[in-house]
Design goal:
The complex is a heterodimer. Chain A is an alpha/beta fold. Helices cover about 45% and strands about 15% of the residues of chain A. Chain A contains eight helices and six strands. A six-stranded parallel beta sheet of chain A has the order 1-2-3-4-5-6. In chain A, helix 5 links the parallel strand 4 and strand 5. Chain B is of the alpha/beta class. Chain B has one domain: Aldolase class I (TIM Barrel), CATH 3.20.20.70. Helix content of chain B is about 40%, strand content about 15%. Chain B has ten helices and eight strands. Chain B has an eight-stranded parallel barrel with strand order 1-2-3-4-5-6-7-8, surrounded by seven helices. Classes of the chains: A alpha/beta, B alpha/beta. At the A-B interface, helix 1 and helix 2 of A face helix 2, helix 3 and helix 4 of B.
Chain lengths: ~160, ~230
């Protein structure tokens, strides 16, 4: 997506979302995060380093996608505020990268680093509960949330599974 | 403020595979380019910042103005001299808010109206084109030609950099519009002798006195020889 369009989208989402409840985080773009007044920047593989997020986006959250314990430890050391770890379960989008990590490895990552671990990849409400039990701080879902006709009901399922409702 | 020179080379690694971004930066220095623009639409942000930092240091050492295409974030992180913004990129005024008055901001225009808009938005220069048909970038619009370029040059107060299909075969017509400068990609990167081509383009574009419409004598002699 061209940066101009991404900026308009970010501004639009910010207007429609209550930021006290929901944090809006953009992938990699410190400029978009600053211009749209977002809550954080998430660094993908070979993405923006934590130093730059801290330097330019004061007060914002910085996150990092990781796919192994080694990468998770590295991200913590680099100063990111949280890691997104996965894929924990099999997900069509990540099949090309090989086998999913599984709950045991998720548990190992969660016990070895201090910063919050968000589990991603093949998440559904029942699996979300398993990830939290394995030590994850939270979960990220894409396919399961958008392949439903009723996102609100689906979100409630997550909240119930995670014991927040 | 950094002065905007008259010959800009754009690093494009999509239209050719012979040279890397850094190699093109070195080519720019050897060939006498005044501006180097890093353009890469595919590299991940971290890698783009790494390359941009290297080129920024190199260009600073050799007094070449270093501009990054599209990515305001990369300019901020790498210490490049400025950014060039296309019509689908972050708006000029937003970029100015992030970069401040000391960084150079260039904006693309495909018409006189857009060129005046970029000027009003606070751009330091406007890139106008494409002047001639080009294979370097997909262009849905028709080539603008030198008549339209001439009109833009007359009505726009900030420097105009002509872009699109400019080569040694048409540089005289382009320079004859009194345009401030030119940006080149294909005519240099596809040339069997890119440094030589750059040097010749530089001679041609600086041979015209910006604003006077007069070709200076020395270069006239040179042209006649050719």
């Amino acid at each position: 997506m061209p940066a101009g369009e991404l900026l308009r989208l970010a501004l639009d989402i910010r207007k429609k979302v209550n930021r006290k409840v929901t944090k809006i985080i953009v992938n990699d773009r410190i400029d978009i995060a600053m211009l749209a007044g977002l809550s954080g920047v998430h660094s993908v593989t070979d993405g923006i380093s934590a130093d730059y997020i801290r330097k330019f986006c004061r007060g914002m959250i910085s996150g990092k996608s990781v796919h192994s314990l080694k990468e998770a430890l590295h991200a913590e050391k680099a100063g990111y505020d949280y890691v997104l770890y996965g894929p924990v379960f099999r997900t069509p989008a990540k099949v090309k990268y090989g086998k999913p990590q599984g709950l045991r490895k998720l548990n190992e990552v969660c016990s070895r680093i201090e910063i919050p671990v968000i589990a991603v990849g093949g998440i559904n409400p029942a699996r979300a509960k398993k990830c939290i039990d394995a030590g994850a701080h939270g979960v990220a879902a894409i396919r399961d949330l958008f392949n439903t006709s009723n996102i609100k009901a689906k979100l409630s399922e997550y909240k119930i599974a995670l014991g927040e409702l | 403020m950094n002065k905007i020179g008259r010959l800009c080379l754009i690093t494009d690694t999509a239209i050719q595979k012979n040279y890397s971004h850094l190699q093109i930066a070195k080519m720019a220095v050897k060939g006498g380019a005044d501006i180097l623009q890093l353009r890469d639409k595919t590299l991940p942000t971290g890698k783009l910042i790494d390359i941009s930092k290297k080129i920024a240091a190199f260009c600073r050492e050799h007094k070449v103005l270093f501009i990054v295409n599209d990515r305001v974030d990369v300019v901020m992180a790498s210490g490049a001299d400025g950014v060039h913004l296309g019509n689908e990129d972050i708006p000029v005024k937003d970029a100015r808010g992030l970069l401040g008055s000391r960084k150079i901001i260039g904006g693309t225009a495909h018409s006189l109206k857009e060129a005046l808009l970029r000027q009003n938005e606070g751009a330091d220069y406007v890139g106008f084109g494409h002047i001639y048909p080009t294979k370097s970038k997909f262009k849905p619009e028709k080539a603008k030609g030198t008549n339209m370029l001439s009109e833009v040059v007359k009505k726009v107060k900030i420097p105009v950099i002509a872009i699109g299909g400019i080569s040694l075969s048409n540089i005289d017509d382009v320079a004859g519009t009194n345009v401030h400068g030119i940006a080149v990609i294909g005519s240099v990167l596809r040339s069997p002798e890119p440094v030589k081509t750059l040097k010749e383009l530089k001679k041609k574009i600086t041979g015209y006195n910006y604003g006077s419409g007069q070709q200076i004598k020395e270069v006239c002699v040179n042209n006649c020889r050719i």
